[in-house]
Each structure stands twice: as structure tokens, then as C-alpha cells.
Input
Amino acid sequence: MVTLIAGKKGSGKSKEIVRRANEALEAHKGDMIFIDDDSRAMYDLHHDIRFVDISKFPVKNTCEFLGFICGLISNNYDIQTIYIDGIMNTVRMTQEELVEWFSRIDEVSDLHKINFVVTLNYESELPEGLHRYQ
Output
């Protein structure tokens, strides 16, 4: 399952995704990964949640980011949830690329039974293809 938390910059999306990750830890049986474009949230997360600062890796486009996620999954079959804070801070995408990326991550989610929770800064109306993830 893929869940999107979208809203304007400064609307509390990062605090919400950190809260969800920490609260979900008690009920999770598998591993959890939290991906962010900087290390601000690292100290707010429980130490059992694997934190990844994506800015430390040479990921520049949607294909590389999808490959990075698939690499994490192939290295650890116990991953239950991957949290991604600020997808557009990590990789710049057009609206079409954004919808395609969510579609592909949804396929990965179904295939590997992994939940994804993703935050997105979006100032205008979300593309129609993303409404089903809210």
C-alpha cells in the first residue's frame, strides 16, 4: 500500500510522517526505513527505525531513486514499511514523472508486500493520478 501525505510547505507533513513512523513501530513485526534528504528528522525517530540521508548517495533522478529503493529491499527481505519525507526534495520530477513514479512504487509495494508512506510539498491541485494514494 502507498500512502501520500501532500500539502503546502510548512503544513506539518514532516512532523506527521515522523509521528506515524514512531507510533507504527510498536505494531510492526518487520523493519522500517525512513528516507529523508537531510538529517533533521534523525533524532526525532526511534532508534529502531533505520534512517537514510539520501543526500549522501548519488541519486539524481526517478530511475536512480527507484533503483536505490529496490536495492534496500533486495538487501533486507524483512522491510515492512518505507517512509519517504519530501519526495520532491529528493528528486525533481514533472507532474507526469511524479504520477509514473507513484505507479511504479505501487507495483513494488504490491510485489514485495511493503508499505510506503510518502510526503509531498504541493502548492496547487494534485494530479488526478495521485488522488488514490491519499
Remarks:
- Residues 2-133 form a domain with the Rossmann fold fold (CATH 3.40.50.300).
- The longest strand covers residues 115-121.
